[in-house]
Amino acid sequence: MKYAKYVLSILAIIYITSILTGYPNLNIKATHIDKITKENLNDIDRIRIFYGRPGQDGVTLVDKTEINEFLNLLRKYLIVEDINAPVIAGYYQAANLYIKDKLIMSIIFDEPVNINGVYYKVIRGKLSSEKIDKIIKSYKE
Description:
Blueprint lengths: L1 H19 L10 E2 L13 E6 L7 E3 L2 H12 L2 E4 L11 E7 L2 E8 L3 E3 L2 E7 L4 H12 L1
Antiparallel strand pairs: 1-4, 2-3, 2-5, 4-8, 5-6, 6-7, 7-8
């Protein structure tokens, strides 16, 4: 009997501590990148993919086929908000998505990924800077 009370007390302390410290998996649901914004990503008419370092050119996608290819790549990732992510200064690659000159989504491709100022862990799929480099180079040609 004493053992059961002891175990229940320990479990209660762990549960309360996890709530107070913001346990990262508590009440947070996984989603796809295209569900982050309320806008319909099929309406995107321009994507600017660029580097965070000076002297490296990026690329702007305006062709609907190229835009859809890039969006399909993004849709493969399953993400969850990372409330314990450290604030990261600087970035290697990023993309801005527009509908009629209105910026609807800004993505910094890092671990964790930053979408519109909120950090997310990628829990399915793997962000690859090499893959983004290939995309930029292929659209430049």
